[in-house]
Amino acid sequence: MINLHWLYVLAGAVFGSFALSSARDSTNARRWGNTAFWALLTASFWFGDFLGDIGNGVLVLALVAIAGAHLLGKGSRKSTTNDERERYSDTLGNSLFLPALVIPFTAFVGTLVFNYTPVKDTGLIDPKSVTLVLLGAGVIIALIVCYAWLRPTVLAPVEEGGRLADSIGWALVLPQMLAALGVIFAAAGVGTTIGALAGAIIPSGSVFLAVLLYAFGMVVFTMIMGNAFAAFPVMVAAIGIPILIRQDGGDAAVIGAVGMLSGFCGTLMTPMAANFNIVPAALLELKNQYGVIKAQIPTALPLLVANILILYFAAFR
Amino acid sequence: MINYWPLLGIALVVLGFALRFNPLAVVAVAAIVTGLLGHMPFMKVLATLGHGFNENRYVSITYIVLPVIGLLERYGLQQRARALIGRMRGATAGRLLIGYLGFRQVFAALGLKDVAGHAQTVRPLVAPMTLAAAENQHGELDEDTVERVKAMSAATDNVGVFFGEDIFLAIASILLIQASLKGFGIELTPLQLSVWAIPTAICAFLIHGARLLWLDRQLKSFPDKLGEDR
Protein backbone atom coordinates (compact mmCIF):
# COMPACT_ATOMS: atom_id res chain seq x y z
CA MET A 1 0.00 0.00 0.00
CA ILE A 2 1.31 3.44 -0.93
CA ASN A 3 1.13 5.54 2.22
CA LEU A 4 2.78 8.60 3.74
CA HIS A 5 5.98 6.65 4.25
CA TRP A 6 6.55 6.43 0.49
CA LEU A 7 5.96 10.14 0.20
CA TYR A 8 8.61 10.73 2.86
CA VAL A 9 11.06 8.74 0.73
CA LEU A 10 10.20 10.96 -2.26
CA ALA A 11 10.36 14.15 -0.18
CA GLY A 12 13.72 13.04 1.26
CA ALA A 13 15.02 12.62 -2.29
CA VAL A 14 13.83 16.14 -3.18
CA PHE A 15 15.48 17.66 -0.08
CA GLY A 16 18.60 15.63 -0.91
CA SER A 17 18.60 17.23 -4.34
CA PHE A 18 18.44 20.67 -2.69
CA ALA A 19 21.54 19.71 -0.67
CA LEU A 20 23.30 18.64 -3.86
CA SER A 21 22.30 21.84 -5.61
CA SER A 22 23.50 24.00 -2.69
CA ALA A 23 26.85 22.19 -2.58
CA ARG A 24 27.39 22.98 -6.27
CA ASP A 25 26.43 26.65 -5.93
CA SER A 26 29.73 28.53 -5.81
CA THR A 27 27.91 31.91 -5.95
CA ASN A 28 26.65 31.34 -2.39
CA ALA A 29 29.28 32.26 0.19
CA ARG A 30 27.49 30.18 2.82
CA ARG A 31 26.76 27.22 0.60
CA TRP A 32 27.95 24.60 3.11
CA GLY A 33 25.44 25.89 5.65
CA ASN A 34 22.66 25.42 3.13
CA THR A 35 24.04 21.99 2.17
CA ALA A 36 24.09 20.84 5.80
CA PHE A 37 20.58 22.22 6.41
CA TRP A 38 19.00 20.36 3.49
CA ALA A 39 21.04 17.22 4.20
CA LEU A 40 19.72 17.15 7.79
CA LEU A 41 16.19 17.47 6.48
CA THR A 42 16.87 14.62 4.05
CA ALA A 43 18.05 12.51 6.99
CA SER A 44 14.88 13.39 8.89
CA PHE A 45 12.64 12.27 6.04
CA TRP A 46 14.54 9.10 5.25
CA PHE A 47 15.68 7.93 8.67
CA GLY A 48 13.44 9.85 11.11
CA ASP A 49 11.68 6.69 12.22
CA PHE A 50 14.97 5.00 13.10
CA LEU A 51 16.67 7.88 14.89
CA GLY A 52 14.60 7.66 18.07
CA ASP A 53 13.04 10.66 19.82
CA ILE A 54 16.29 11.95 21.29
CA GLY A 55 18.06 11.53 17.95
CA ASN A 56 15.34 13.53 16.22
CA GLY A 57 15.55 16.15 18.97
CA VAL A 58 19.29 16.54 18.37
CA LEU A 59 18.59 16.81 14.62
CA VAL A 60 16.09 19.59 15.30
CA LEU A 61 18.60 21.47 17.47
CA ALA A 62 21.19 21.15 14.68
CA LEU A 63 18.74 22.64 12.14
CA VAL A 64 17.99 25.47 14.56
CA ALA A 65 21.70 26.07 15.21
CA ILE A 66 22.40 26.44 11.47
CA ALA A 67 19.52 28.86 11.00
CA GLY A 68 20.06 30.75 14.26
CA ALA A 69 23.79 31.29 13.58
CA HIS A 70 22.90 32.77 10.18
CA LEU A 71 24.80 30.08 8.30
CA LEU A 72 22.17 30.02 5.54
CA GLY A 73 22.79 32.14 2.46
CA LYS A 74 21.37 32.82 -0.95
CA GLY A 75 23.33 32.36 -4.13
CA SER A 76 22.97 34.44 -7.26
CA ARG A 77 23.39 31.51 -9.58
CA LYS A 78 22.36 31.74 -13.15
CA SER A 79 18.98 30.46 -14.13
CA THR A 80 17.68 31.90 -17.41
CA THR A 81 17.53 35.69 -17.77
CA ASN A 82 14.26 37.58 -18.09
CA ASP A 83 14.84 38.08 -21.83
CA GLU A 84 15.47 34.38 -22.37
CA ARG A 85 12.32 33.61 -20.39
CA GLU A 86 10.26 36.01 -22.53
CA ARG A 87 11.57 34.26 -25.63
CA TYR A 88 10.84 30.78 -24.26
CA SER A 89 7.37 31.97 -23.26
CA ASP A 90 6.70 33.22 -26.82
CA THR A 91 8.02 30.06 -28.50
CA LEU A 92 6.48 27.50 -26.18
CA GLY A 93 3.13 29.28 -25.85
CA ASN A 94 0.30 28.27 -23.59
CA SER A 95 1.42 24.62 -23.57
CA LEU A 96 3.74 25.75 -20.78
CA PHE A 97 0.76 25.64 -18.45
CA LEU A 98 0.17 21.96 -19.08
CA PRO A 99 3.00 20.50 -16.97
CA ALA A 100 2.09 22.89 -14.15
CA LEU A 101 -1.54 21.81 -14.34
CA VAL A 102 -0.60 18.11 -14.43
CA ILE A 103 0.01 18.26 -10.66
CA PRO A 104 -3.38 19.60 -9.50
CA PHE A 105 -5.13 17.65 -12.27
CA THR A 106 -3.61 14.34 -11.14
CA ALA A 107 -4.53 15.10 -7.54
CA PHE A 108 -8.08 16.12 -8.50
CA VAL A 109 -9.03 13.40 -11.02
CA GLY A 110 -7.07 10.81 -9.07
CA THR A 111 -8.98 11.57 -5.86
CA LEU A 112 -12.32 11.35 -7.68
CA VAL A 113 -11.37 8.08 -9.38
CA PHE A 114 -10.14 6.69 -6.08
CA ASN A 115 -13.30 7.59 -4.18
CA TYR A 116 -15.91 6.64 -6.74
CA THR A 117 -14.50 3.54 -8.43
CA PRO A 118 -13.41 0.13 -7.12
CA VAL A 119 -9.78 1.39 -7.02
CA LYS A 120 -10.44 2.17 -3.35
CA ASP A 121 -10.88 -1.51 -2.57
CA THR A 122 -7.64 -2.64 -4.18
CA GLY A 123 -5.68 -1.29 -1.23
CA LEU A 124 -3.18 0.37 -3.57
CA ILE A 125 -3.23 3.73 -1.78
CA ASP A 126 -3.77 4.48 1.90
CA PRO A 127 -7.21 6.20 2.00
CA LYS A 128 -6.00 8.57 4.74
CA SER A 129 -3.45 10.25 2.48
CA VAL A 130 -4.89 9.84 -1.02
CA THR A 131 -4.59 13.44 -2.17
CA LEU A 132 -1.03 13.84 -0.91
CA VAL A 133 0.05 10.56 -2.51
CA LEU A 134 -1.52 11.68 -5.79
CA LEU A 135 0.21 15.04 -5.44
CA GLY A 136 3.48 13.10 -5.33
CA ALA A 137 2.44 11.09 -8.39
CA GLY A 138 1.56 14.34 -10.17
CA VAL A 139 5.01 15.76 -9.45
CA ILE A 140 6.68 12.67 -10.92
CA ILE A 141 4.46 12.73 -14.03
CA ALA A 142 5.08 16.47 -14.50
CA LEU A 143 8.84 15.92 -14.23
CA ILE A 144 8.71 13.16 -16.86
CA VAL A 145 6.66 15.39 -19.18
CA CYS A 146 9.15 18.25 -18.71
CA TYR A 147 12.16 16.06 -19.45
CA ALA A 148 10.54 14.60 -22.55
CA TRP A 149 9.26 17.91 -23.91
CA LEU A 150 11.68 20.65 -22.84
CA ARG A 151 14.81 18.46 -22.79
CA PRO A 152 16.56 20.36 -19.99
CA THR A 153 19.93 19.22 -18.69
CA VAL A 154 19.64 16.31 -16.27
CA LEU A 155 20.39 18.50 -13.24
CA ALA A 156 18.17 21.45 -14.27
CA PRO A 157 15.22 20.53 -11.99
CA VAL A 158 17.69 20.02 -9.13
CA GLU A 159 19.27 23.44 -9.70
CA GLU A 160 15.93 25.21 -10.07
CA GLY A 161 14.35 23.45 -7.09
CA GLY A 162 17.42 24.29 -5.02
CA ARG A 163 17.21 27.93 -6.11
CA LEU A 164 13.60 28.18 -4.88
CA ALA A 165 14.36 26.26 -1.68
CA ASP A 166 17.32 28.54 -0.87
CA SER A 167 15.09 31.57 -1.41
CA ILE A 168 12.60 30.20 1.15
CA GLY A 169 15.40 29.12 3.48
CA TRP A 170 14.70 28.41 7.17
CA ALA A 171 11.01 29.39 6.72
CA LEU A 172 10.56 26.04 5.01
CA VAL A 173 10.84 24.05 8.26
CA LEU A 174 9.12 26.63 10.48
CA PRO A 175 5.64 25.08 10.10
CA GLN A 176 6.98 21.71 11.21
CA MET A 177 8.85 23.32 14.12
CA LEU A 178 5.69 25.07 15.25
CA ALA A 179 3.81 21.78 15.14
CA ALA A 180 6.51 20.33 17.40
CA LEU A 181 6.15 23.35 19.73
CA GLY A 182 2.43 22.56 19.90
CA VAL A 183 3.29 19.07 21.13
CA ILE A 184 5.48 20.57 23.90
CA PHE A 185 2.76 23.08 24.85
CA ALA A 186 0.32 20.21 25.20
CA ALA A 187 2.76 18.13 27.26
CA ALA A 188 3.49 21.08 29.59
CA GLY A 189 -0.21 21.71 30.16
CA VAL A 190 -0.44 25.13 28.47
CA GLY A 191 -3.85 24.28 27.03
CA THR A 192 -5.46 23.35 30.33
CA THR A 193 -4.02 26.46 31.98
CA ILE A 194 -5.48 28.75 29.33
CA GLY A 195 -8.78 26.91 29.53
CA ALA A 196 -8.86 27.42 33.29
CA LEU A 197 -8.07 31.13 32.88
CA ALA A 198 -10.81 31.58 30.28
CA GLY A 199 -13.28 29.63 32.40
CA ALA A 200 -12.47 31.76 35.46
CA ILE A 201 -13.27 35.12 33.83
CA ILE A 202 -16.61 34.01 32.38
CA PRO A 203 -19.31 36.61 33.06
CA SER A 204 -22.51 35.22 34.50
CA GLY A 205 -25.95 35.93 33.12
CA SER A 206 -25.08 37.37 29.71
CA VAL A 207 -25.29 34.92 26.82
CA PHE A 208 -23.86 37.48 24.42
CA LEU A 209 -20.78 38.13 26.58
CA ALA A 210 -20.23 34.39 26.90
CA VAL A 211 -20.41 34.01 23.10
CA LEU A 212 -17.98 36.90 22.76
CA LEU A 213 -15.50 35.35 25.19
CA TYR A 214 -15.78 31.95 23.47
CA ALA A 215 -15.08 33.41 20.01
CA PHE A 216 -12.28 35.72 21.23
CA GLY A 217 -10.81 32.86 23.22
CA MET A 218 -10.70 30.75 20.06
CA VAL A 219 -9.04 33.58 18.14
CA VAL A 220 -6.42 34.44 20.76
CA PHE A 221 -5.56 30.84 21.58
CA THR A 222 -5.37 29.98 17.86
CA MET A 223 -3.04 32.91 17.31
CA ILE A 224 -0.81 31.64 20.11
CA MET A 225 -0.78 28.03 18.94
CA GLY A 226 -0.86 28.87 15.21
CA ASN A 227 -3.58 26.31 14.77
CA ALA A 228 -7.29 26.23 15.58
CA PHE A 229 -7.13 22.47 16.14
CA ALA A 230 -5.12 22.92 19.33
CA ALA A 231 -7.39 25.68 20.59
CA PHE A 232 -10.74 24.03 19.91
CA PRO A 233 -10.82 21.17 22.46
CA VAL A 234 -9.63 23.56 25.19
CA MET A 235 -12.16 26.32 24.53
CA VAL A 236 -15.01 23.86 24.04
CA ALA A 237 -14.22 22.25 27.39
CA ALA A 238 -13.78 25.61 29.17
CA ILE A 239 -16.73 27.63 27.78
CA GLY A 240 -18.52 25.87 24.91
CA ILE A 241 -19.88 22.86 26.78
CA PRO A 242 -20.39 24.10 30.38
CA ILE A 243 -21.64 27.63 29.65
CA LEU A 244 -23.01 27.91 26.10
CA ILE A 245 -24.50 24.43 25.63
CA ARG A 246 -25.38 23.17 29.15
CA GLN A 247 -26.16 26.40 30.99
CA ASP A 248 -27.59 28.56 28.20
CA GLY A 249 -29.01 25.77 26.01
CA GLY A 250 -27.24 26.69 22.76
CA ASP A 251 -27.29 24.49 19.64
CA ALA A 252 -24.22 22.24 19.85
CA ALA A 253 -23.75 21.97 16.07
CA VAL A 254 -23.53 25.76 15.62
CA ILE A 255 -21.29 26.23 18.64
CA GLY A 256 -18.93 23.51 17.44
CA ALA A 257 -18.75 24.47 13.76
CA VAL A 258 -18.73 28.26 14.05
CA GLY A 259 -16.42 28.13 17.08
CA MET A 260 -13.84 26.37 14.93
CA LEU A 261 -14.35 28.89 12.12
CA SER A 262 -13.79 31.76 14.57
CA GLY A 263 -10.46 30.13 15.29
CA PHE A 264 -9.68 30.16 11.56
CA CYS A 265 -10.03 33.99 11.67
CA GLY A 266 -7.19 33.87 14.20
CA THR A 267 -5.13 31.66 11.88
CA LEU A 268 -5.25 34.46 9.28
CA MET A 269 -3.67 36.90 11.74
CA THR A 270 -0.72 35.04 13.28
CA PRO A 271 2.89 34.39 12.22
CA MET A 272 2.61 31.12 14.16
CA ALA A 273 0.59 29.71 11.23
CA ALA A 274 3.80 29.85 9.26
CA ASN A 275 2.88 27.62 6.34
CA PHE A 276 -0.04 29.90 5.47
CA ASN A 277 1.39 33.27 6.45
CA ILE A 278 5.20 33.29 6.52
CA VAL A 279 6.21 30.74 3.86
CA PRO A 280 4.14 32.45 1.11
CA ALA A 281 5.79 35.78 1.95
CA ALA A 282 9.13 34.09 1.30
CA LEU A 283 7.86 32.25 -1.78
CA LEU A 284 6.54 35.46 -3.32
CA GLU A 285 9.69 37.35 -2.30
CA LEU A 286 7.82 39.97 -0.29
CA LYS A 287 9.96 42.57 1.49
CA ASN A 288 7.81 42.43 4.62
CA GLN A 289 7.69 38.91 6.06
CA TYR A 290 4.37 39.85 7.70
CA GLY A 291 2.94 41.21 4.40
CA VAL A 292 0.46 38.36 3.95
CA ILE A 293 -0.86 38.77 7.51
CA LYS A 294 -1.29 42.49 6.93
CA ALA A 295 -3.32 41.75 3.82
CA GLN A 296 -5.52 39.30 5.76
CA ILE A 297 -6.41 41.25 8.90
CA PRO A 298 -9.08 43.44 7.20
CA THR A 299 -10.83 40.24 6.05
CA ALA A 300 -10.36 38.35 9.32
CA LEU A 301 -11.85 40.98 11.66
CA PRO A 302 -15.20 41.58 9.86
CA LEU A 303 -15.47 37.83 9.36
CA LEU A 304 -14.99 37.33 13.10
CA VAL A 305 -17.85 39.77 13.72
CA ALA A 306 -19.96 37.75 11.27
CA ASN A 307 -19.08 34.55 13.12
CA ILE A 308 -20.01 36.05 16.49
CA LEU A 309 -23.39 37.13 15.09
CA ILE A 310 -23.97 33.69 13.54
CA LEU A 311 -23.07 32.07 16.88
CA TYR A 312 -25.39 34.34 18.82
CA PHE A 313 -28.42 34.29 16.53
CA ALA A 314 -28.22 30.75 15.11
CA ALA A 315 -27.24 28.88 18.27
CA PHE A 316 -29.79 30.62 20.49
CA ARG A 317 -32.87 30.68 18.25
CA MET B 1 -2.90 24.33 41.97
CA ILE B 2 -2.40 25.24 38.34
CA ASN B 3 1.16 25.86 37.20
CA TYR B 4 1.10 29.17 35.29
CA TRP B 5 4.84 29.26 34.57
CA PRO B 6 4.69 27.44 31.21
CA LEU B 7 2.74 30.45 29.87
CA LEU B 8 6.07 32.27 29.92
CA GLY B 9 6.93 30.22 26.80
CA ILE B 10 4.12 32.00 24.96
CA ALA B 11 5.47 35.37 26.04
CA LEU B 12 8.90 34.34 24.72
CA VAL B 13 7.41 33.47 21.32
CA VAL B 14 5.55 36.77 21.07
CA LEU B 15 8.63 38.74 22.17
CA GLY B 16 10.98 36.83 19.87
CA PHE B 17 8.72 37.29 16.83
CA ALA B 18 8.21 40.97 17.64
CA LEU B 19 11.97 41.57 17.92
CA ARG B 20 12.44 39.63 14.68
CA PHE B 21 14.96 37.13 15.96
CA ASN B 22 15.32 34.06 13.77
CA PRO B 23 11.90 32.37 14.20
CA LEU B 24 13.36 28.84 14.25
CA ALA B 25 15.58 29.79 17.18
CA VAL B 26 12.69 31.59 18.92
CA VAL B 27 10.48 28.52 18.65
CA ALA B 28 13.20 26.15 19.84
CA VAL B 29 14.03 28.31 22.89
CA ALA B 30 10.34 28.72 23.72
CA ALA B 31 9.81 24.97 23.44
CA ILE B 32 12.67 24.16 25.80
CA VAL B 33 11.74 26.86 28.33
CA THR B 34 8.07 25.83 28.30
CA GLY B 35 8.99 22.19 28.83
CA LEU B 36 11.38 22.93 31.70
CA LEU B 37 8.85 25.22 33.42
CA GLY B 38 6.29 22.45 33.00
CA HIS B 39 8.56 20.28 35.20
CA MET B 40 9.84 18.12 32.32
CA PRO B 41 13.51 17.04 32.57
CA PHE B 42 15.68 18.36 29.70
CA MET B 43 16.05 14.98 27.99
CA LYS B 44 12.27 14.56 28.06
CA VAL B 45 11.85 17.99 26.44
CA LEU B 46 14.39 17.11 23.76
CA ALA B 47 12.65 13.79 23.07
CA THR B 48 9.21 15.42 22.90
CA LEU B 49 10.51 18.05 20.49
CA GLY B 50 12.12 15.41 18.29
CA HIS B 51 9.03 13.22 18.39
CA GLY B 52 6.74 16.14 17.51
CA PHE B 53 8.98 17.19 14.63
CA ASN B 54 9.16 13.66 13.22
CA GLU B 55 5.42 13.01 13.53
CA ASN B 56 4.60 16.24 11.68
CA ARG B 57 6.81 15.71 8.61
CA TYR B 58 3.73 15.60 6.39
CA VAL B 59 3.42 19.38 6.90
CA SER B 60 6.50 19.86 4.71
CA ILE B 61 5.52 17.49 1.90
CA THR B 62 4.14 20.08 -0.53
CA TYR B 63 7.69 21.36 -1.20
CA ILE B 64 8.22 18.37 -3.49
CA VAL B 65 6.63 20.54 -6.20
CA LEU B 66 9.53 23.04 -6.13
CA PRO B 67 11.76 21.32 -8.76
CA VAL B 68 8.88 21.23 -11.28
CA ILE B 69 7.81 24.81 -10.58
CA GLY B 70 11.42 26.05 -10.74
CA LEU B 71 12.03 24.22 -14.01
CA LEU B 72 8.91 25.68 -15.61
CA GLU B 73 9.91 29.15 -14.42
CA ARG B 74 13.25 28.61 -16.17
CA TYR B 75 11.25 28.16 -19.38
CA GLY B 76 9.14 31.29 -18.85
CA LEU B 77 6.02 30.07 -17.00
CA GLN B 78 5.54 33.34 -15.08
CA GLN B 79 6.05 35.36 -18.28
CA ARG B 80 3.49 33.15 -20.02
CA ALA B 81 0.98 33.65 -17.20
CA ARG B 82 1.44 37.41 -17.53
CA ALA B 83 1.14 37.33 -21.32
CA LEU B 84 -2.10 35.37 -21.15
CA ILE B 85 -3.73 37.90 -18.81
CA GLY B 86 -2.12 40.88 -20.55
CA ARG B 87 -4.13 40.09 -23.66
CA MET B 88 -7.47 39.87 -21.85
CA ARG B 89 -9.20 43.26 -21.89
CA GLY B 90 -11.72 42.68 -19.11
CA ALA B 91 -9.33 41.02 -16.68
CA THR B 92 -8.74 42.99 -13.50
CA ALA B 93 -6.71 41.99 -10.47
CA GLY B 94 -9.81 41.98 -8.26
CA ARG B 95 -12.02 39.94 -10.60
CA LEU B 96 -9.27 37.43 -11.21
CA LEU B 97 -8.76 36.91 -7.48
CA ILE B 98 -12.54 36.71 -6.88
CA GLY B 99 -12.62 33.90 -9.45
CA TYR B 100 -9.73 32.16 -7.70
CA LEU B 101 -11.42 32.65 -4.30
CA GLY B 102 -14.58 30.95 -5.57
CA PHE B 103 -12.61 28.14 -7.21
CA ARG B 104 -10.63 27.55 -4.02
CA GLN B 105 -13.72 27.55 -1.78
CA VAL B 106 -15.71 25.19 -4.03
CA PHE B 107 -12.83 22.76 -4.49
CA ALA B 108 -12.01 22.78 -0.77
CA ALA B 109 -15.70 22.13 -0.04
CA LEU B 110 -15.42 19.06 -2.31
CA GLY B 111 -12.52 17.81 -0.21
CA LEU B 112 -9.85 18.88 -2.69
CA LYS B 113 -7.89 21.40 -0.66
CA ASP B 114 -4.47 20.12 -1.69
CA VAL B 115 -4.95 20.58 -5.45
CA ALA B 116 -3.86 24.21 -5.18
CA GLY B 117 -1.64 26.12 -2.80
CA HIS B 118 1.10 28.71 -2.39
CA ALA B 119 3.83 26.62 -4.01
CA GLN B 120 1.67 24.81 -6.56
CA THR B 121 -0.51 27.63 -7.89
CA VAL B 122 0.01 31.03 -6.21
CA ARG B 123 3.69 31.59 -6.98
CA PRO B 124 3.78 30.21 -10.54
CA LEU B 125 0.31 31.25 -11.78
CA VAL B 126 -2.01 33.33 -9.61
CA ALA B 127 0.45 36.01 -8.47
CA PRO B 128 1.96 36.73 -11.92
CA MET B 129 -1.49 36.73 -13.54
CA THR B 130 -2.84 39.13 -10.92
CA LEU B 131 0.19 41.40 -11.33
CA ALA B 132 -0.32 41.44 -15.11
CA ALA B 133 -3.99 42.33 -14.69
CA ALA B 134 -3.06 45.09 -12.23
CA GLU B 135 -0.62 46.48 -14.80
CA ASN B 136 -3.39 46.46 -17.38
CA GLN B 137 -5.53 48.61 -15.11
CA HIS B 138 -2.90 50.82 -13.64
CA GLY B 139 0.14 50.98 -15.89
CA GLU B 140 3.57 50.49 -14.36
CA LEU B 141 3.28 49.41 -10.70
CA ASP B 142 5.45 50.88 -7.96
CA GLU B 143 7.18 48.55 -5.52
CA ASP B 144 4.61 48.94 -2.73
CA THR B 145 1.75 48.14 -5.09
CA VAL B 146 3.53 45.02 -6.39
CA GLU B 147 4.00 43.95 -2.77
CA ARG B 148 0.36 44.55 -1.96
CA VAL B 149 -0.99 42.72 -5.02
CA LYS B 150 1.24 39.71 -4.32
CA ALA B 151 0.20 39.65 -0.66
CA MET B 152 -3.48 39.78 -1.67
CA SER B 153 -2.92 36.78 -3.98
CA ALA B 154 -1.56 34.71 -1.09
CA ALA B 155 -4.27 36.01 1.26
CA THR B 156 -6.99 35.00 -1.22
CA ASP B 157 -5.65 31.45 -1.35
CA ASN B 158 -5.77 31.21 2.46
CA VAL B 159 -9.26 32.70 2.83
CA GLY B 160 -10.57 30.39 0.09
CA VAL B 161 -9.23 27.20 1.57
CA PHE B 162 -9.98 28.01 5.24
CA PHE B 163 -13.59 28.93 4.63
CA GLY B 164 -14.34 26.20 2.12
CA GLU B 165 -12.82 23.09 3.68
CA ASP B 166 -15.22 22.78 6.62
CA ILE B 167 -18.15 22.26 4.26
CA PHE B 168 -16.54 18.96 3.32
CA LEU B 169 -17.71 16.16 5.63
CA ALA B 170 -14.53 14.19 6.06
CA ILE B 171 -12.10 17.04 6.78
CA ALA B 172 -9.93 16.79 9.89
CA SER B 173 -11.45 19.84 11.59
CA ILE B 174 -15.03 18.54 11.31
CA LEU B 175 -13.94 15.18 12.67
CA LEU B 176 -12.14 16.94 15.52
CA ILE B 177 -15.27 18.94 16.42
CA GLN B 178 -17.31 15.74 16.35
CA ALA B 179 -14.82 13.89 18.55
CA SER B 180 -14.46 16.79 21.04
CA LEU B 181 -18.23 17.07 21.53
CA LYS B 182 -18.64 13.32 21.75
CA GLY B 183 -16.29 13.34 24.73
CA PHE B 184 -19.05 15.27 26.55
CA GLY B 185 -21.83 12.95 25.44
CA ILE B 186 -23.06 15.11 22.55
CA GLU B 187 -23.47 12.98 19.42
CA LEU B 188 -23.57 14.86 16.09
CA THR B 189 -23.09 13.68 12.52
CA PRO B 190 -20.48 15.37 10.29
CA LEU B 191 -23.34 16.66 8.10
CA GLN B 192 -25.02 18.47 11.01
CA LEU B 193 -21.73 20.28 11.63
CA SER B 194 -20.67 20.98 8.05
CA VAL B 195 -23.95 22.71 7.07
CA TRP B 196 -23.09 25.31 9.73
CA ALA B 197 -19.87 26.06 7.86
CA ILE B 198 -21.91 27.38 4.93
CA PRO B 199 -23.06 30.76 6.39
CA THR B 200 -19.48 31.65 7.31
CA ALA B 201 -18.25 30.52 3.88
CA ILE B 202 -20.72 32.89 2.23
CA CYS B 203 -19.71 35.76 4.54
CA ALA B 204 -16.03 35.08 3.77
CA PHE B 205 -16.72 35.24 0.02
CA LEU B 206 -18.67 38.51 0.37
CA ILE B 207 -16.21 40.23 2.73
CA HIS B 208 -13.04 39.23 0.92
CA GLY B 209 -14.69 39.69 -2.49
CA ALA B 210 -15.68 43.24 -1.53
CA ARG B 211 -12.09 43.97 -0.55
CA LEU B 212 -10.92 42.67 -3.92
CA LEU B 213 -13.36 44.96 -5.75
CA TRP B 214 -12.07 47.79 -3.56
CA LEU B 215 -8.53 46.87 -4.70
CA ASP B 216 -9.72 47.25 -8.30
CA ARG B 217 -11.16 50.69 -7.55
CA GLN B 218 -7.91 51.80 -5.98
CA LEU B 219 -5.86 50.46 -8.86
CA LYS B 220 -8.06 52.37 -11.29
CA SER B 221 -8.84 55.68 -9.65
CA PHE B 222 -6.04 56.53 -7.25
CA PRO B 223 -2.98 55.51 -9.22
CA ASP B 224 -0.58 57.58 -7.16
CA LYS B 225 -1.88 57.19 -3.66
CA LEU B 226 -2.15 53.42 -3.60
CA GLY B 227 1.22 52.87 -1.97
CA GLU B 228 0.53 55.05 1.07
CA ASP B 229 -3.14 54.28 1.38
CA ARG B 230 -2.85 51.21 3.52
Question: Which short descriptors sum up this protein?
Answer:
heterodimer, A: 317 residues, mainly alpha, B: 230 residues, 11 helices, disordered C terminus
Structure description:
The complex is a heterodimer of chains A (317) and B (230). Chain A is mainly α and 317 residues long. Chain A has helices at 4-24, 31-68, 82-92, 97-116, 130-150, 156-168, 174-187, 190-200, 207-225, 228-247, 252-267, 274-277, 279-283, 291-315. With 230 residues, chain B is mainly alpha-helical. In chain B, 70% of the residues lie in helices and 0% in strands. Chain B is built from 11 helices and no strands. In chain B, 58% of the residues are buried. Chains A and B meet through helix 1, helix 2, helix 3, helix 4 and helix 5 of A and helix 1, helix 2, helix 3, helix 4 and helix 5 of B.
Write the layout of secondary structure elements.
The complex is a heterodimer of chains A (317) and B (230).
Chain A: H1 4-24, H2 31-68, H3 82-92, H4 97-116, H5 130-150, H6 156-168, H7 174-187, H8 190-200, H9 207-225, H10 228-247, H11 252-267, H12 274-277, H13 279-283, H14 291-315
Chain B: H1 7-18, H2 23-37, H3 42-55, H4 66-74, H5 77-86, H6 93-109, H7 118-138, H8 143-165, H9 172-182, H10 190-194, H11 198-221
